[in-house]
Amino acid sequence: MTRNVVISGGGTGIGLAAARVFAADGDRVLLLGRRGDVLERTGVPGALTYAADLADPQAVRGVAGFVGREFGAVDVLIHSAGGNGLLEPLDDDAGDDPLDAVARAWTLNFRLNLLTAALLTEALRERLAEPGGRVLFLSSIAAYRGHGQVAYAAAKAGLHPYAHDLARKLGPHGITVNVVAPGYIEDTAFFGEGIDEDLRAWLVDETLNGRAGTPGDVAATLHWLASPGAAHITSQIVQVNGGAERGH
């Protein structure tokens, strides 16, 4: 059966890999992102695209209207939009005050990673297929760790209680809600123009299988969680990190 799949952050990285997997399965896919030109270049067969800033309520209302016209019901909603802010344009008017820098970093990360997911979910909540709907959030290994870019980590960790609450409320309607938390994934724009080789070596060395993850690893997990075979799995955080973090 053909399903309607909405993927935020669908123009690059994990979101694009997921779009390709679902499209190959015969599903109808809608790719969301801020950069329309990037969405248009994905080459995902039959995919629809819609450019919008998902941290803007008015823009998300536009997405909801488009989904209503083109899809009606949403079978799978995947939240891949986000990042650590490295690719965001610098604020030329920003001062050097350290507290201003803290405010910018935390506000940016919560907008990119948490607010976008909450707004899109609430806008499409009434359109989720009943029964059988799937909501999937992308968290991070960083959500479990107290080092690195903590604003990003905190924003990703904030998805966890939101997903658990949604799972509780949507479960009676036959809708599952889960979180996928990847570790180090190569071939994404997360590290901007590139990653330091020493850092990459350390991240790979943390794994038990001795390799970096790929967008395809995460996409396959998302595809499985959206399948009928995962119908009794909800309110879970599934880690995809080669064993770099485990036991939660």
From TrEMBL:
Belongs to the short-chain dehydrogenases/reductases (SDR) family. InterPro entries: KR_dom, NAD(P)-bd_dom_sf, Sc_DH/Rdtase_CS, SDR_fam. This is 3-oxoacyl-[acyl-carrier protein] reductase. One of its GO terms (biological process) is fatty acid elongation. Keywords: Oxidoreductase. PROSITE patterns: ADH_SHORT. SUPFAM superfamilies: NAD(P)-binding Rossmann-fold domains. It comes from Streptomyces griseoloalbus. The keyword Oxidoreductase applies. CDD domains: SDR_c.
